[in-house]
# Entry
Amino acid sequence: MNRTLLNHTHRWLGLAAVALMLNGCAGMLAYREGNSLLAEGKLEPGLAKLEEAARLEPKNAEYRITFANRKLTIVNGLNARAETARQQGNLTEAEKAYNQTLAIDSNNAFAKQGLHALITERRHKQIVEEAEALYKKGGNNNLSDALEKLRPILAENPNQREALNLKARINEQQARQ
# Structure
């Protein structure tokens, strides 16, 4: 009976060793696949594979550090791309990059603030367009109404370029009249 118990114990230990080796192989495969996907520009699946490798081998510091560093680098790059696009007036591209950041890091405060700023900028743009239409109609009442529309925008953002340009044109037109 002792011999049977010993055989079962050896068999169980052998299976446990095989399971550990397979788990290690799975971690290594996920790590390699993650790096390969990232090299191809497939950010979200690549990071998911690196995270999987770190999860499969939690004691492997290289996997954990690589995942954390790559995630941070990608998130910072996406946020920088979004901010540049926003500053250049390409709001659609900025929104896409901010949303991609949030798909990777759902709690990223910079991306959330960026999306909020895009909402404000779109609202400002709409109001400037309405004020521009009033300006084009001409007449003292329309020019005054256009200035009134611009006032809240310039209160929120004194450097809003389009609003400043339109305000200067309106003031010039009013001075001529």
Q: What stands out?
A: The CA atoms of residues 24 and 57 lie 7 Å apart. The mean pLDDT is 88. Helices lie at 2-39, 43-56, 61-87, 91-104, 109-137, 140-156, 161-176. The longest helix spans residues 2-39.
